[in-house]
Amino acid sequence: MEQTLDNIVKKNLKPEDLKQFNRIHYGREDHCELKLKESTIKKCHEANIEVAGYYFTANREQIRDPRYVKVGVIQHSIVQPTDKPLSEQRAAILKKITNVIDIAAAEGVQILCLQEMWYMPFFLCTREKDKWAEFAESATEGPVFNFLSPIAKKYQMVLISSILENDNGTWWNTAVVINENGQYMGKHRKNHIPSVGSFSETSYYAPGNLGHTVFNTKYAKIAINICYGRHQALNWLMFGLNGAEIVFNPAATISEFGESFWGIEARCAAVANSYFTCSINRVGTEVFPVIKDGRKEFITRSYYGSSYITAPNGHRTPSLSRVRDGLIISVLDLNLCRQMKDQWGFNMTSRLDMYAEKLSQKKET
Ligand SMILES: NC(=O)NCCC(=O)O
């Protein structure tokens, strides 16, 4: 059994203690597991993909019907070594992901989010640009959009695809939303760009210029907070103010950068803003041969996966594996968003006026 925090706890606690742990830590005594099809389990086993299903309920209301939506998140490693031709690298990932999307579709997933820059190695640690430029593409007619669009249509699935966008020669870190008819619905550009340790993304693209768009899809009002933006409470807040019911956080992050707060930030955001959050991180080790001072060196980075989903009441799923490809399928009752607002009064008691006044006075130091 793999050493995730959940597995360590499960293995070492007596059933009664485990119940207590789950009640206090996760907010519920069991994980409300969703029964998945035999075929899903078989296909995932064959492809060495961890698969887990959960559901989040809300109180029954007298007037409003439950508003169920089934979401999926996929974490995965790259397939080919990073020195192979770019087209081969991308084709191998697309093939792998097609299989996982097919599995998710057979389970009736309606909204599915992929990890940050899912179709390529996360080369942004190398500081190299030219070598990778062909991975940067148009949000509306690039190879990745053209690949996903028919899939979205075939399965009437909303797809969130994090890409390296090339918009008339300018690069952006962008999440594209494709609607259930396979049409481009819009995009969000990463607002906060890391320049920390080997995450030197500021040399590639500028902070996003599209604000905090919420996409009113057929199934839910969704938004995307891309990776490093999860460290900013106000970034999460703005998506909530704009009406998001689910905020996806496609990421690429490694242990050295706060694995201990990975499980906290999106969960806090879900509680503070009364929406669901879906956190998706890469897995696997990516090795980049680079030339430094005339010598060949290797940059190696390992991503710790651990994708999970949180409800507005703070209940969350266990994490996926730290090392294996994985798929979480979860049923969410969106009624829980308003119920939490009503129960806790977070909206009613917020003091945005007070913050706005101070923020408008704030000068850059
Ligand atoms: N991809 C990305 O923004 N990574 C930054 C490191 C982190 O926020 O964990």
TrEMBL record:
What does the UniProt keyword field contain? Hydrolase
Which protein is depicted?
A: CN hydrolase domain-containing protein
UniProt keyword Plastid, yes or no: no
Q: List GO BP terms, alphabetically.
A: beta-alanine biosynthetic process via 3-ureidopropionate
Checking PANTHER family in the record gives: BETA-UREIDOPROPIONASE (PTHR43674:SF2), NITRILASE C965.09-RELATED (PTHR43674)
| InterPro entries per the UniProt record, alphabetical | Aliph_Amidase/BUP, C-N_Hydrolase, C-N_Hydrolase_sf
CN hydrolase domain location is: 69-334
Q: Does the keyword Hydrolase apply?
A: yes
The GO molecular function terms of this record are: beta-ureidopropionase activity
What species is this protein from? Diatraea saccharalis (sugarcane borer)
- An example Pfam family from this entry, by short name, is CN_hydrolase
Q: Which domain of life is it from?
A: Eukaryota
